[in-house]
Amino acid sequence: MLIPKKNRNEIFAYLFKEGVLVAAKDVRPTAVHEDLNMPNLYVLKLLNSLKSKGFVREVFNWNHFYWFLTNEGIEYLREYLHLPEDVVPATLKKKAGENFERNPFGGRGRGRGGRGGFRGGRGGSRGGRGGYSGRSAPAESAAPAEAAPVAETAQ
User: Fold this and answer.
1) Terminus of the chain with fewer CB atoms < 10 Å: N or C?
2) What whole-number distance in Å separates Cα of residue 10 and Cα of residue 37?
3) Cut 0.70: pTM above it
4) Using CA atoms, how far apart are residues 108 and 149, in angstroms rounded to an integer?
5) pLDDT at position 16
């Protein structure tokens, strides 16, 4: 499909700036893309072309297309739009002052309260369940020898 160069450049610039693009599956000639104010058909066909070249990854859900730039797509759009290497899409930028180490649920690590794995991370070598694993206790965790009852032998 022939897409005017002005519209193509605008779509590419928006995709590179955001790193992701969303469009409804609406191919009617009167349908207009919400963010770009141009025919939705232009957006669908241009991103379909980029998908076939491997420059974007497509997800379709609830009658909407979601396209995500790949590393190859970032390189292609940088070259096409004549952008310097230090310009990156918004999806690759870290927000200022955002601390990724801090957990909103308290504690450290993943999930709630710093517990690893699913619901506390039981099993494996981590212990869980207070060290009880259902197997017999190892020798070093047994009671001391003087506390053990002495069996008397009859002679």
Assistant:
1) C
2) 10
3) no
4) 44
5) 94
